[in-house]
Structures are given as structure tokens and as C-alpha cells.
Amino acid sequence: MRKLKRFLLVLLSAVLMSGVVSSVSASVITLDETTDLGVWQNFYFNDVGSYGTDTYQFSTTTELSFFVTDAFAIGDRFEIFDGSASLGLTSNVAESDSVNLSDAQSAYDSGLYSTGEWVLGPGTYDISVLVASTPYGRGGAFVKLDTSSAAPVPEPATMILFGIGLLGLAGVSRKKR
Questions:
Q1: Buried/exposed 130-155: b ≥16 CB within 10 Å, e otherwise
Q2: Tell me, what's the pLDDT at 157?
């Protein structure tokens, strides 16, 4: 029993060390919001649980969006991280061999590939892409930093919604008395 525990401990250590080595080998790409804005950057990945070949570091003084799209073979899905905080998953799509787009914008616009957009406020970011699912064991995809495609919320409408919410709360508290 003691030998089995020791063997499992050594095996676990080896697995953890290989994870550390593979995460260190990823290259860091510093994105510049003036020159890299709107430019798709390709990255490659291995099986589920691995990170893409690159991490993306940038600072912004304005609101920007970070876009991700699968490309080539359909069916890969990603989880996006800023440091250790998950920003979320790309969309879920069915696996298919019927389309093989290598153009990032075409893949993003097609609706066939897993995609995502994260609106980021002013700040400093360290973005990495984790493979959440892939039917192929490896592949390629794209990311880009660009102006946000999210529609801004008009300020008067926000105030009206806030006022309606306050009226609703006042009505509920008055009804309880």
C-alpha cells in the first residue's frame, strides 16, 4: 500500500510538472490598441485542457472587445481567462466537417463556428485561451482586439429604467404595510 501511495505521488508530481512546463512555453503577445486593433491573430492548440500557444497582454484606456473564433474544422470550444479569472466560454456548436474556413472574419460571421466577444473596460489584461472541447485533438483559431460591437445603453433610457425600478420597490414596500 505504501509503495502504491509513493508511486501515485510521483506520478501526480510528474503530471503537475509537465503542466507547469507546458504553460511556461506559451509565448506572450503584447497587443497595442493603436496598431493591432482589428487584426486577427492566429493561435494553435492541443487537446482539451491545454492552453493556446499564446497569451495576450494589453492595456487600454477605452472600452474594447476581445473576440475569439474557431476556424478550419468546426467543433472546437474555448474558455477565456484574464489571469486566473474566467471570462466565459465561446458559443456551443455542433461538430461538422462540411465547412473548412481559414479566414477568421468569415468563420466569425458564418454562425457555424464557436465564437465569443468580451467587452473590456479600461485596464490591463493578461488573456489566455483554454481548450474546453475539441473533437480533433488539436487545431487552430483566431483572436482579435477591436472596438466593441455591443450597442451602448443610452443614458436617458438607463435613468428611466432605474426610476421604474424604484417605483416598483416603493409599491412593493407600500403593499406590505
A1: bbbbbeeeebbbbbbbbebeeeeeee
A2: 67
